[in-house]
Amino acid sequence: MVVTSIRLTQFVGGPAELVDLAVAAEEAGFDQVWFASDPFMLHTWSLCTAAALRTTRVHVGALGVNPVTVDPSEIAAHLGTLDLLSGGRALVGIGAHTDGMVPRLGLDGKSTPARTAEAVRLVRALIAGEEAPTDGEHFRWAPGCALGFTPHRRRIPLHVTAYGEEFLTAAGGYGDGVLPILFPPETAPEVVGWVRAGAGAAGRDPSEVDVAGCVWVSVADDPAEAGDLIRPTIAFFGPYLSERELAVAGLGPDDFAPVTAAMRDGGVEAAARLVTDDMLRLAVVGTPDEVAARLAGLVDAGVTQLSIGGPLGPDPAAAIRLLGERVLPALG
Which of 204, 209, 286, 324 has CA atoms 20 to 30 A from the CA of 261? Predict the structure, then answer.
């Protein structure tokens, strides 16, 4: 049976609302809840902690924890603490979904893939109770570095938040899972192929690597209402997509140029007004039956975890319940 998760960002509510949605996701039958990490936005580890203390079954993870901006020692400490607080339900996605985020901070995003591979190695050693390796290129710690406490588990799944063929392929070789964005969803077969190729090249069984594909979802009985809800999300994230990803949906960078300009000059609301109906193809939008049918295609493509993000629906909590009642059962 496919694993299901909800990805939550501040686009669907403030801190209290997001934690309430995590509780709703647990009640609706989802297996995991992920909180996205992004500079200048609501802090992922704070949200994870609050959600862990309000839930009892669902696993809680921080994704997009970028080792360009966050040292692996801090990632391990946050993760280990969360695992203790949650009774062994902590997850993490180390890396980023684009190299275009950290340059705003005066940092070089091009080092993200290499730093991520080293960070996973360091965090894995620290969580296991071992001394961290000292031979990295980007992280050269002094001998004897180790966690000063014992996490609930000595083996916590480490997912890799990755993008692009090279990064995703490499991640398949060392991550317990990979967290690609499937925008548009039709990129799934190609992305799954990259991850599996990386696992095979590293001598691993590709079936052991969790491919947690994220799609934007907006579900409502009125498809037009669902489409309008997701326009701000597409306006924010669409300009970060590669030319290859856009081409799968029949779009190109020039299509998003007005959206990008409006985002810079007037913010998300102004940019959302320029999102066309064609751009909605980047997401999964429609009635519960339509959403279920399109998500089933991702499972057929080899996605092992359906990670649902976006506005979710007119009322996010009601949308989560609707997904649990009418979409998840259709996925088997």
Answer: 286
Asked if residues 133 and 121 have their Cβ atoms less than 8 Å apart, the reply is: yes
pLDDT digits (tens, 9 = 90+) for 59-97: 999 999 999 999 999 999 999 999 999 999 999 999 998
Helix 164-174, helix 188-201: angle, nearest 10: 50
146: which 2 tokens? 């180790």
3-state secondary structure (DSSP) of residue 92: strand
CA distances, 189 to each of 98, 248, 259, 280, 299 (Å): 20, 12, 28, 20, 10
Q: Are 97 and 240 spatial neighbours (Cβ–Cβ below 8 Å)?
A: yes
The distance from CA 68 to its chain's CA centroid, rounded to whole angstroms, is 17
How far is 7 from 20, CA to CA, in rounded Å? 13
263, 236 Cβ separation under 8 angstroms: yes
Q: pTM of the entire structure? A: 0.92
What Cα–Cα distance (Å) separates residue 325 from each residue in 71, 159, 205, 321? 41, 28, 34, 6
